[in-house]
Design a protein that fits this description.
Blueprint (H helix, E strand, L loop, with lengths): L14 H11 L6 E5 L12 E2 L9 E2 L3 E4 L10 E9 L13 E5 L11 E4 L4 E3 L2 E4 L9 E2 L10 E3 L7 H9 L4 E5 L2 E8 L3 E2 L10 E2 L1 H9 L5 E9 L3 H12 L4 E5 L10 H8 L1 E5 L3 E2 L5 E5 L2 E6 L3 H20 L9 E5 L10 E10 L5 E5 L8 H6 L2 E5 L11 E6 L5
Parallel strand pairs: 5-6, 13-16, 13-17, 14-15, 17-21, 19-23, 22-24
Antiparallel strand pairs: 1-12, 2-11, 3-10, 4-6, 4-7, 5-9, 8-9, 18-20, 20-21, 22-26, 23-24, 23-25, 25-26
Helix pairs in contact: 1-6, 3-6, 4-5
């Protein structure tokens, strides 16, 4: 489909085809390193991890109470047992439990070998060294068996799992203190443009502050990435080409913002053709059409548009999945919800649009979404105020209030 708002002579590349092209072009990094659990959060496992022990290792109590043997008990009859000791968490009862005896026990404490039941402490009466059990005492309850959670040799986590805080807790519970993970992806990024001014300096006429570099640095923050900020490169063709080549020699990925369009000072695509390879340029999305993807030597290259909202959209929809694949993490599509649009939306057919929206949910669990305001690719304020994308297909020609739309909550984006 041609974009009805542009002068393109041939159909623009769909976002689906763009992602397929990237997926075919990228292989995960091959290097690995061994890290302690304290340093492994968010990293991608390079080797699966197997449990060296049973979890739990010993039978233990699921609650505070009294441990006893059900042998000889008669259903529906109350009974009394002699209290002969205590099993504490970390300090098991050392004796042998005999017939007619019980022990005080605390949550997580080892259950004596002769016991098969634990009763909650609130259900019994204790007088000196005698414990009175009610007629409705339930037996064979409240004991965690050996290996109930994990058996020795069980695969705790399979590579290429991206490690969460809960994953680290699971590994620690098995006594695992180190993991082998994929090395970090080395990323260089910089802004291009004569109009850019560094923060802290006064603005001259026609200049703007370089917000893209700060924003992209935040988007790239993550334990699987080693990020180098190379600053601002002016609109100088030779300087840009030299910078691209130099960065490609010791990074896995280069990301630039600006210079990817068709203006006289937009050199990114031309330079990429001269010193590397262009896989594609321009996509049927809005904002973010002039995105270039290619390679310089062994380094992948993403030339993002200069408008700030287009930078965010193309990063989240195109670059982030690519970096995830490069890091070795499992691929996943962003989760989407269906919501009722409570404001009318304008759109021309031709490109898939990612409009900024504000999502809400009523007491019945129904989702509703409203526009976050002006949708220009330079309007960063509405991007800041929004919490989701309203995803409008290429063929869509606008949405009246009350229609159902697809939304991607920012909190669920990969």
């Amino acid at each position: 489909m041609l974009d009805s708002c542009s002068q393109e002579s041939r159909p623009l590349l769909s976002i689906e085809n763009a992602l397929d092209s990237i997926k075919a072009a990228i292989q995960p990094v091959s290097g690995t390193e061994k890290l302690t659990l304290k340093n492994a959060l968010g990293r991608v496992l390079a080797e699966s991890v197997y449990s060296p022990i049973n979890i739990p290792r010993d039978r233990n109590a699921a609650m505070d109470g009294y441990a006893f043997s059900s042998c000889g008990r008669v259903d529906g009859q109350a009974f009394m047992l002699a209290l002969v000791g205590t099993s504490w968490a970390g300090r098991p009862f050392q004796g042998q439990l005999q017939a007619g005896q019980c022990v005080r026990i605390f949550t997580g404490a080892v259950v004596p070998e002769q016991a098969d039941s634990v009763i909650m402490q609130e259900q019994v009466q204790v007088h000196e060294q005698s414990v009175y059990f009610p007629a409705d005492t339930r037996v064979l309850q409240n004991i965690r068996e050996i290996g109930e959670d994990v058996n020795e040799g069980y695969c705790l986590l399979a590579q290429p799992k991206k490690l969460t805080a809960v994953d680290l807790g699971l590994l620690a519970s098995a006594g695992v203190d180190q993991v082998t993970v994929k090395r970090q992806v080395k990323i260089a990024h910089f802004s291009t443009g004569d109009e850019l001014t560094a923060l802290g300096r006064p603005l001259e006429p026609g200049k703007i502050y370089d917000s893209n570099r700060i924003m992209l640095g935040g988007l790239l923050a993550g334990p699987s990435y080693s990020v180098t900020d190379l600053g601002v490169i002016p609109d100088n063709k030779q300087l840009l080409e030299d910078s691209f080549i130099a960065a490609s020699k010791n990074h896995d990925v280069i990301i630039t913002t600006g210079g990817a369009s068709v203006g006289e000072a937009d050199y990114v695509k031309e330079i990429l053709q001269n010193c590397g390879k262009v896989n594609f340029w321009k996509m049927a999305i809005k904002p973010g059409k002039p995105l270039a993807f290619g390679k310089i030597g062994q380094c992948h290259f993403f030339g993002l548009p200069g408008n700030p909202v287009a930078v965010v959209v193309t990063y989240q929809q195109i670059v982030a999945p690519a970096l995830r694949q490069l890091s070795g993490a499992p691929l996943a599509k962003p989760l989407r919800l269906t919501a009722t649009c409570i404001t009318a939306l304008k759109k021309a057919p031709g490109r898939q649009e990612y409009q900024r929206g504000i999502l809400s949910q009523d007491e019945c669990g129904e989702f509703f979404v409203a526009t976050a305001g002006r949708q220009g690719s330079n309007i960063l304020s509405s991007m800041s105020q929004s919490d989701c994308y309203i995803v409008l297909p290429r063929e869509c020609a606008g949405v009246p209030a009350g229609d159902k739309v697809i939304v991607e909550p920012f909190s669920l984006l990969i």
